[in-house]
């Protein structure tokens, strides 16, 4: 495993296992499989509705808690100082742990300043080892760094070969914020797994397209989250520490960048409306 060291000295595994869209009935088994394969960094969120299943796996896995790096994210509907603080304590109960390694604000909307103040206080109380944000564009991230006592230590953003976030990474490096990639495979959009450039590079190293993408992120010093419900694919995604892409290969991959999200642009009014609707939908889901 390779690691990054966050601005506060916390060591974070560069490869993590993400549980977004893994159904509750499969999640515990998947996390146990991932830990068996060797993953020690597990990423969940309040809005994934599977924190309890992740917690069950943490409790049953047999790996000492101090060897695991557990991340969760605060959902928008829990923003605001008091709601955020209570929601994180609730997440800790679900995850069956008395501290969290990293807590992020999931989206850059609503009262994220009040929410961040709660994370700062929980950090100062020793309940969280590192704090940060997710999906914050360069201007909002600069704002958060400039006007908080504890600058965000991580920003988790969509990053893949077609949306490489070069400017965003330059901004994070300048502000000593660690970049973390969600959707490194773009959920297979744009035929990513059959892309001829990525396939050709993979054939040269006897590696899959997924392995090439994860290796490319490692060499950019970006923490990456890989997700699968199949243990064979988990193993494949984990086997990326035995080769290095050449400078030429890195350059060729850089030319795939379209500088456009494969999903949506958080900076549009439509995105705000989409998330407002999502809050209502997830409230309804919680009632079921």
In DSSP terms (H or I, runs of 4 or more residues), the helix count works out at: 11
N-to-C SSE series? EEEHEHEHEHEHEHEHHEHHH
What's the Cα radius of gyration? 18 Å
What helical percentage do the residues reach?
40-55%
Strand content: 5-15%
The rough form would be described as globular
Low-confidence stretches: none
Mean pLDDT across every amino acid position? 96
Largest sheet: 8 strands, parallel, barrel
Largest sheet strand order? 3-4-5-6-7-8-9-10
> Helix/strand-derived class?
alpha/beta
Separation of the first and last Cα atoms:
40 Å
DSSP E strands, number: 10
Structural account:
The protein is α/β, with parallel strands linked by helices and 288 residues long. The protein has helices at residues 24-37, 51-60, 81-94, 112-124, 138-146, 166-174, 196-205, 209-219, 231-238, 247-254, 269-287; strands spanning 3-5, 11-13, 15-18, 41-43, 69-74, 102-105, 131-134, 154-158, 178-182, 223-226. An eight-stranded parallel beta barrel has the order 3-4-5-6-7-8-9-10, surrounded by five helices. Helix 1 packs parallel to helix 2. It starts with a strand and ends with a helix.
Name some characteristics of this structure.
8-stranded parallel β-barrel; single chain; alpha/beta; two-stranded antiparallel ribbon; 288 residues; globular
Brief digest:
With 288 residues, this protein is an alpha/beta fold.
Per-chain topology:
Elements: E1 3-5, E2 11-13, E3 15-18, H1 24-37, E4 41-43, H2 51-60, E5 69-74, H3 81-94, E6 102-105, H4 112-124, E7 131-134, H5 138-146, E8 154-158, H6 166-174, E9 178-182, H7 196-205, H8 209-219, E10 223-226, H9 231-238, H10 247-254, H11 269-287
Parallel strand pairs: 3-4, 3-10, 4-5, 5-6, 6-7, 7-8, 8-9, 9-10
Antiparallel strand pairs: 1-2
Helix pairs in contact: 1-2, 1-9, 3-4, 7-8
